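Postdoc handover notes: sequence design on the structure in folder B. Input tokens:
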């Protein structure tokens, strides 16, 4: 698996497939972050799409090319928060069954978990998302983020302890 650093450098050199690989790698974690904030699938998709466009346009400004994922997720958070502020206070219920069938149902316990992951520090949130939501091994996460395996293991362990403390007693 190619590292984020090499994919970012490839994108900057004009390799279209490199950015496509970054999009495929981070679209699910980005959507999870946006859903955790917006709680609306369509608005979350809009935030993610806008974030990927902004990331592509500003890719040359990224200092640490290996930190693309954390940088992108921060952009997603900002876009989602901006959309949240712009959204009407209440969204009227829809009678459109097709739209309801396409929208994923997120149980309350899953939403609490997503909210808790979003509260983690940026690096921990990213590692938890990649390891548990995207099913990457610790070694793969370390390679993607250009960090030592021991550091990734320690941060994931610390994040799990923090999440367990926050979610304790919530009937997950």
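Designed sequence:
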């Amino acid at each position: 698996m190619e590292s984020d650093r090499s994919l970012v450098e490839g994108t900057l050199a004009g390799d279209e497939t490199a950015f496509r690989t970054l999009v495929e790698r981070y679209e699910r974690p980005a959507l999870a972050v946006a859903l955790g904030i917006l709680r609306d699938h369509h608005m979350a998709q809009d935030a993610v799409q806008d974030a990927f466009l902004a990331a592509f346009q500003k890719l040359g400004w990224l200092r640490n090319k290996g930190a693309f994922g954390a940088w992108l997720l921060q952009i997603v958070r900002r876009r989602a928060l901006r959309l949240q502020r712009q959204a009407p206070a209440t969204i009227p219920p829809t009678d459109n069954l097709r739209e309801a069938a396409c929208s994923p149902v997120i149980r309350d316990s899953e939403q609490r978990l997503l909210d808790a992951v979003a509260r983690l520090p940026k690096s921990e949130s990213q590692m938890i998302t990649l390891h548990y939501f995207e099913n990457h091994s610790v070694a793969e996460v370390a390679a993607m983020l250009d960090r030592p395996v021991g550091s990734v293991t320690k941060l994931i362990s610390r994040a799990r302890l923090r999440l367990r403390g926050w979610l304790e007693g919530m009937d997950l």
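Context for whoever picks this up: The longest helix spans residues 16-38. Don't rerun without checking with the PI first.
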